[in-house]
Design brief:
single chain, 55 residues, mainly alpha, 0% strand, elongated
């Protein structure tokens, strides 16, 4: 893909920090709002609040 517009360069630490925040936000949204994840959790990791001590 060819991008015509280029954002103003940010200091490296600011760019990295922004990327980290965005990445964490995307991960959080994926975890909290993913029907697929809930399906996997239900199928693979059956959560039993009465059995938390078991390994």
């Amino acid at each position: 893909m060819h991008h015509e517009l280029h954002p103003l360069p940010l200091p490296e630490n600011s760019r990295r920090r922004q990327a980290n925040v965005v990445g964490q936000g995307d991960l959080y949204n994926a975890l909290m709002h993913s029907d697929v994840l809930f399906q996997l959790q239900r199928d693979l990791f059956v959560f039993d609040p009465n059995n938390l001590g078991a390994v």
